[in-house]
Amino acid sequence: MTITETPAGGTAPPAGRPRPNRAPNRRGPARATRRRTPWLLLAPALLWLFVFSIWPSLNTVRMAFTNAKPLGGTERFVGFDNFGYILEDDQVANALLNSVVFMLVCLPLLTILPLLIALLVEKKLPGITFFRTAFYTPVIASAVVVALIWTFMLDDRGLVNGLAQELSIIQGPLPFLTDRWLIVLSAVSLTVWKGLGYYMIIYLAALGNVSKDLHEAAAMDGAGAIRRFLSVTLPAVRGAMLLIAVLVCIAALRVFSEVFIMTGGTGGAGGEALTMVMLIQQYSRGFAGDLGYASALSILMFFVTLVPMLILARINSRSDR
Amino acid sequence: MTAVNEDQRATELTGHVATKAPRARKTRGFGSAGPGELVIRYVLLVFVLFISIGPFLWQLSTSLKSTSEDIYTRIPQLWPGDPTFDNYLRVMDAIPVWTFIGNSLFVAVFQVGGNVIFSTLAGFTLARLRFRGRKIVIGLFLATLILPGEATIIANFVTIRNLGLADTLLGVALPGMIATLNVLLMFNAFRVLPEEIDQAAVIDGANALQRFWNVSLPSVKGTVAVIAIFSFIGAWDDFLWPLIVLTSPDQFTLTIGLQYLSGTFSNDQRLIAAGSMIAFVPIAIVFAALQRHFFKGVEEGGVKG
Questions:
Q1: Where in or outside the cell is it found (chain B) (predicted)?
Q2: Chain mean position to CA A127
Q3: What's domain B94-299's architecture?
Q4: What was the ipTM of the complex prediction?
Q5: CB–CB of B10 and A124 under 8 A?
Q6: Is B278:B261 a contact under the CB 8 Å cutoff?
Q7: What is the pLDDT of residues A252-287, one digit of tens each?
Q8: Domain A82-320: which CATH class?
Q9: Chain B residue whose CA is closest to A69
């Protein structure tokens, strides 16, 4: 049996390109097999795409108009009720505000600091692989593990409060894990620390494309390190920087484990520090759960995460013009 | 003195790399760094190192401190006064750690296997075979990228429940077995291979699977390694999805078990520290062992896409 598709590169080759061995197989069983092969190879991935991405998106929209319960049972159509509840729900407004504040603080930190670290590890010095691996370690650790470490360090009697009091920076312990905005800030510090290595790698790949000739020419012309960074390096990593800014925003809007663990699943006193995803999770379980409402919240979350993507698309199209 | 030495070694190293692979030239620093710059660089590197792994060391140290030692001293004591493994033994009494580890491994094996095999096949098909509907399929995969996983997590739970898989490890493992992102990463990796390498094999009469196995796959090993590592980390570290799917303690994965441990023994920091180290150390070892492949794969363009 000979199957002889011509390879397709990135795009379909222009007409008239020679297609080796194609003619002899025009007819017969070989051709049918040739047609089926791609779909056979794709089948598992396509099945998963439909069952676990496309169908759930549609189902989320459907369920948002019902009163579906976590334990099953009959579902009733409730119209726009769930969306009406969202508008009246103070916890949703709180969660949205928390998530957005969290995002706005993370954004500058995680766009700039990883670039500086990437510049630091870019040069192939002895031992640099060790440093790169070590800087990446927080990325591979579970958010649960990291949040437990942070919980201990930010405890009233923990490392941070103890040291800060010893150095007389503060008089009494700061309530990092109980005050609403301090919880958000603690989650930011954890997220930034855990994200540094991840975005460092993306910058590192981008820095590989910075023209050395341009750098050397600028140095010849007497440009200092900072000047070279601003006029050679920065323009070259601009694309990576935009991408990272959007990735940071989306990741920030999805924050869950960090705040969940640091507040013992409560989201602070009265759920003041809940995030969007924590709210969705709360409605996903048990007798008090409400999958219809959770689905409506999911749709809200989808549109919120769409905003940074649209802004990126806008910036990209403007710079192309 | 040492700085000068290191400077020389650095030049040798970069010179060596430059002759070995033309690609590596790009990452070499231009000019030669003076000893002053080197000292500053290493000081900064050590400073960032301290920030990156300091918290892990602090947790490790706490997990090794005996109950007679104060873990809340104002001046932190990094070195345990009387190191002991007692806390680890106590974790094993408090929760069925080995069961949780086994459960996490079960999920991880499914997801690593699924992603490595099926994403690779799908990525190859989309990048190297021509067939009607190919562009539509690529578009579908790309379109679902904008869906944050959390936005469909409720509906996915309903699917798993309706399949009768609620509160099972298979239910935890199934949705993540073929991730869209991995399919697209493999697509990208296969796409950039030169077309010529295929054409020679086509003339030799190789069929699609033979070309996949003998010609294309060996060229994208780096990206496959990245996907395998990321899938393992993703499965091992995942928290929200198993939290929604699982209810019975004997099905808990390690992260859920850890949350249970910290909720039940919230006043026992040594115990929690030991528990979190049990979850962290295996993945740190896996990563340390494979980091060479990981960074090589990233350089190949695995993450850039």
A1: Cell membrane
A2: 30
A3: Orthogonal Bundle (1.10)
A4: 0.85
A5: yes
A6: no
A7: 999 999 999 999 988 888 888 999 999 999 999 877
A8: mainly alpha
A9: B158
